[in-house]
Amino acid sequence: MFKKVAVADTLAVFVDNVYNSLETFCGLALIAATVLFAFQIYCDFSGYSDIARGCSKLLGIELMLNFQSPYFANSISEFWRKWHISLSTWFRDNVYIPLGGNRVGIMRNMFNLMVTFILSGIWHGAGWTFIIWGALHGFYLCCSTFYKKVIKAKFNIKIVMPGILKNVMTFILVCFAWVFFRADSLNGAIYVLKNMFSSLSFSIVYLKQTAWGMGFTRFSFILCAALLVILIIIDYFNYKKPAETTLGQRNFFLRWGVYVMLGFVIIFCIMFTSQSQNFIYFQF
C-alpha cells in the first residue's frame, strides 16, 4: 500500500505533467521525469504484487516473490532476476530455454536473447515503443554475453569497476529503456532522447524553474524526496533479506510503530494527491 498509494501515485502527478506535454519541456525536466517514472512503475507494480501476496497469505496461499530490490542490481542480467520475476521466469522456461538458451554458440545465444526480449516487449503492447524497449534489454544482455564469452573468456580482458558504479550504470541503462516504455509514441520517445540533455544548467535558478515547471511546490518536492529516501532504505534492507522477515523478527512495539507510521503516510498521501491512479499493469 505504501509503495502504490504513497510513492507511485504521488510521483505519477509530476511524471504525467511532463510526459503528457513533452513539447513544453527539455533538459533536466525530461531526465527527472524519466527517473521518477522508473520509481513510479516499480512501486506501482511491486506494490500491486505485494498486495496480492498479502491477500493470498490471508487465505493460506503462498505466491512467489515478484520483485526483489531490482534497482540495486549490478548488471542487466541481475536486474531481470529481480524484476517481474514471474514473467521473466515464464519467458525463460517457455521461450529462451526451448530455443536453446545459452547451451548453443554465441551467435545463436544472442539470437535467443533478442527473440525472447522482443516477444516480452510485444507482450506489453503491439507498438514500436514496447518492441524497442524489449529489444534494448535484449541488446544489453547480448553485450554482456559477448563480453563474458569472448572478451573475458578468450582474450582474458577483465573490466573491473566498483560495485556502486555497476549499480549506477545498470540503473541508467534501465532508465534509458523506460523512455520508450513511458512515451505515448515513438516520436515522443525520440523527442525525449533528443532534448533531455539540451539547455542543461545546474544553477539554483534553473533547478527551481525546472521543479516549478514540473508542478512541484516546495512542500511536494520535500515530500517526494522523503518518500524516495524511505523507499530506498526499505529496499536496501530488502536486498539483503526480505523485509517482511526482518520486520517480523522485531518486537511488538517496533513492528506496530512501523505499521502505524506507514498507515499515516498512506492516508496523508491520499489527501495530498486528491485522486488515485490506476495500476499501470492493468492495461497489459
Describe, in short, the structure shown.
The chain is mainly alpha-helical.
Highlighted features:
mainly alpha; 284 residues; single chain
How does this structure look, described?
This protein has helices at residues 2-19, 28-58, 76-82, 85-96, 106-124, 128-152, 163-182, 186-195, 204-213, 218-240, 243-248, 252-273. It starts with a helix and ends in an 11-residue tail after the last helix. It has 12 helices and no strands. The protein has 284 residues and is an all-alpha fold.
Report the count of strand segments: 0
Note poorly predicted spans. Answer: none
Question: What is the percentage of strand-forming residues?
Answer: under 5%
> Considering DSSP H and I runs of 4 or more, what fraction of the residues is helical?
over 70%
Radius of gyration: 20 Å
Separation of the first and last Cα atoms? 21 Å
Number of helices: 12
Order of helices and strands: HHHHHHHHHHHH
The largest β sheet comes out as:
none
